[in-house]
Design a protein that fits this description.
The chain contains no helices and 10 strands. It is mainly β and 120 residues long. It has one domain: Beta-galactosidase, Chain A, domain 5 (Distorted Sandwich).
Length: 120
């Protein structure tokens, strides 16, 4: 990643509910943006968003995250301002299943993730 200030995350964010874990206590909100840019410490669980594209204008590249199987949600987080974690060149985009998946004995659960790089 070139610089967090040159990166956005696209996907089906607009209108999606998310858990803002930076609030005390964490609270559910609704996203108003089509693309996410991070300019503060950030930790959110976007429910029902599993079609993210990381767009890096600094490198003129993007990285599509193709989810299948059980991945239904996305966590975006950034340790904004934490020099030790290299926040300026770091953003975490995680595919998750936020709600618990209950399995019976000998059952299995599978989810797949594919990273697809391309030019912007």
């Amino acid at each position: 990643m070139s610089d967090i200030e040159k990166v956005t995350v696209g996907g089906s964010f607009k209108g999606a509910k998310f858990l803002n874990k930076m609030l005390d206590p964490p609270a559910e909100e609704v996203e108003t943006r089509d693309e996410i840019s991070v300019r503060e410490e950030y930790d959110r669980v976007y429910v029902g968003v599993n079609d993210c594209v990381l767009k890096d204008a600094g490198k003129s590249k993007q990285l599509g995250i193709e989810n299948s199987g059980g991945w239904k949600d996305t966590v975006l987080w950034s340790p904004w301002g934490n020099e030790g974690m290299g926040y300026q060149n770091f953003m975490c985009v995680e595919s998750v299943a936020f709600e618990p998946v209950n399995l019976n004995c000998f059952d299995s659960w599978t989810a797949n993730l594919k990273l697809v790089p391309s030019k912007l």
